[in-house]
Write a structure and sequence with these properties.
Elements lengths: L1 H13 L6 H14 L9 H6 L19 H13 L26 E5 L11 E6 L9
Antiparallel strand pairs: 1-2
GO molecular function: nucleic acid binding
InterPro entries: RNaseH_sf
Length: 138
């Protein structure tokens, strides 16, 4: 269980672009302690203290104007009509890699480093400027 917690903690720290992980550790720990756990039906902090913690984003509440339910329902209906069905099994076909449509027009890219990384070292380097395109994938 502890190894799983360490893996979660390390991946949360690696989401931040800083080499000084000690500076973001309090924020990361607050986020992990206040996140809702589906299997527990509460957060770890709520189980410890008996009530939810007030996190910095909850100190100042911005009121959004109420949306018109009829407009919401119409947008929802349009979105549901546009959903296309997909085959449930694709064992007989070859898997085609996914390329996001913006990848063909982007100006910068991140490059994955598949070598063995040190602890808390990012897996991607960049961003690098795209200077030339050979084909749709390079």
């Amino acid at each position: 269980i502890l190894e799983r917690w360490h893996r979660t903690l390390k991946s949360a720290i690696m989401c931040h672009e800083t080499e000084h992980w000690i500076d973001i550790l309090p924020t990361v720990l607050l986020g992990l302690r206040t996140c809702f756990k589906e299997d527990l039906k509460s957060s770890p902090a709520e189980m410890l203290y008996g009530s939810t913690l007030r996190i910095p984003g909850e100190f100042f509440k911005e009121e959004d104007p109420p949306a018109d339910p009829e407009i919401f329902i119409e947008k929802h209906r349009v979105a549901m009509r546009n959903i296309k069905s997909r085959p449930t099994s694709a064992h007989h076909t070859t898997k085609i890699p996914f390329y996001h449509k913006n990848l063909f027009e982007c100006t910068h890219v991140w490059v994955r480093d598949d070598s063995v990384c040190r602890s808390l070292q990012p897996s991607y380097f960049g961003p690098f400027r795209v200077v030339n395109r050979i084909n749709d994938y390079l």
